[in-house]
Each structure stands twice: as C-alpha cells, then as structure tokens.
Design goal:
Helix content: 25-40%
Order of helices and strands: EEEHEHEHEHEEEEEHHEH
CATH architecture: Alpha-Beta Complex
Largest sheet: 8 strands, mixed
Distance between the termini: 31 Å
Structural class: alpha/beta
CATH class: Alpha Beta
Strand content: 15-25%
CATH topology: Spore Coat Polysaccharide Biosynthesis Protein SpsA, Chain A
Number of domains: 1
Radius of gyration: 18 Å
Length: 228
C-alpha cells in the first residue's frame, strides 16, 4: 500500500494569539510541525508528504534544514486562504498522483502515533474513507444565548481527530463536488459524507491533541515529557 500524506499548514492560528504560525511554536525544543513530520516520514509505506504552506511563508524550508528534515519524499506546495483550498492544491501535486490512500493530517497534532496512521490507512484502503474518533465524556448541552435549551445524548457522539484517510477517487470526487456546489466543509470527512460515501471509524488516541491555544501547547509538552 502506497500512502500519500497531505498536511495543511498555511493558517496563522488566530486563537493562538501570536503572530508566529502555531505550527512553528516550540514543543520540546523543536517546532510542532517537526514532530509531526518525523512521525509521518518514519512510516515506510508513506511515499509522499505534501505540506501546503502560505505563499508568504519563509520559515518552513529553514526549519526543515535546521532540524535535518531532508527526506526526498517531503514536498511543499502553496496553500490557500482556507484549509480546504490548501488541500485542493495539495491534491494536484504530482507526487501523490498514484498513491493508494491519501491521509490528511493537521500540522498541529504532533503526538499522533505511527500506529494510528497505519490503522486509518488500512481501513480507508479497504472501505474508502476512515476517521479516528474518541468518545465524548462530558455532558453536551444545547444553548441559545445564555440559556440551556436541551441536553444532547452523547452515546452516539464522537470527537473526530486526524489523520483522516480516503482512497484518492473518494477524496477527489468529494472536493470536486464541493467546488461545484460552493460548499466549505469543517473537515474532509464532512465533504466525503456530503458526496454520499460512508465514512468508517477507528479508535483515536486521547493524547492526539490539536494544539490551537497556549494551553494546548502546555498540555502537549507535559504529555511529551511524561512519555519520554
């Protein structure tokens, strides 16, 4: 199985409250994205990694050089104003033209294990589409203004992580339909769902946190230190 990985990294992370893009903040003496790339490039079945970066990004190449991320499977392409646009650009990169599975992974989920990538890829290869999920432990309320108007049953609710995996035809068809219908999805799986394809699940990882705030970074740092 030949796996292509797309990593959208063109955003600036307004919730992080800093001019420096969140993927370039340090986690255990290396930028967050370096941890992500090391995991992905450590998987033998990955034949290409396409990182979509901002047209104004002058840091990515320097960071890769500084931290010795020089793998020939790694490629950069120009990202767009929205995550979805970045992935569309990456889908056109020639290095993933003949892969069996495409995994889309957040640059700022540096703690996902190589085993998770493999599980998602295998299920996507077999069934067409797969996302990792974890259960919802908190009670979920529906709120209007400052009033609770209902409680949402959580038995069937799951939190979705990345990497999300798809066969190339499934993902490309979903994106083509999204463009035709002017749809902007919240993630890749939502576009695939909208195209009528069933999306399957595997167990995610509790430590596979998405770093979008300084608090998230502190939590990830603590997890990394504990695992070390």
């Amino acid at each position: 199985m030949r796996i292509g990985v797309i990593i959208p990294a063109a955003g600036f992370g307004q919730r992080f409250g800093h001019e420096l893009p969140k993927q370039y903040h340090l986690l255990d003496q290396a930028p967050i994205i370096v941890h992500t790339l090391r995991t992905v490039l450590g998987i033998d079945s990955v034949v290409s990694v396409v990182v979509a970066i901002s047209p104004s990004d002058t840091m990515f190449a320097e960071i890769c050089s500084t931290h010795h991320i020089t793998d020939p499977r790694l490629h950069a392409t120009v990202g767009g104003s929205e995550r979805q646009h970045s992935i569309m650009n990456a889908l056109n990169h020639p290095s993933i033209a003949d892969v069996d599975v495409i995994l889309v992974h957040d640059a700022v989920r540096p703690l996902a294990s190589d085993g998770l990538f493999t599980r998602v890829a295998l299920t996507a290869f077999e069934k067409g589409a797969c996302v990792p999920v974890i259960s919802v432990d908190d009670t979920i309320k529906r709120v209007e203004g400052d009033q609770v108007v209902g409680t949402v049953p959580r038995a069937d609710l799951r939190r979705v992580q990345t990497p999300q995996g798809f066969t190339p035809e499934v993902l490309r068809t979903a994106y083509e339909q999204a463009v035709a219908n002017d749809v902007l999805g919240t993630d890749d799986a939502s576009l695939v769902e909208g195209s009528g394809v069933l999306v399957y699940t595997v167990d995610g990882e509790p430590w596979n946190t998405k770093i979008t705030t300084p608090f998230d970074l502190a939590v990830a740092s603590s997890m990394l230190s504990r695992n070390s």
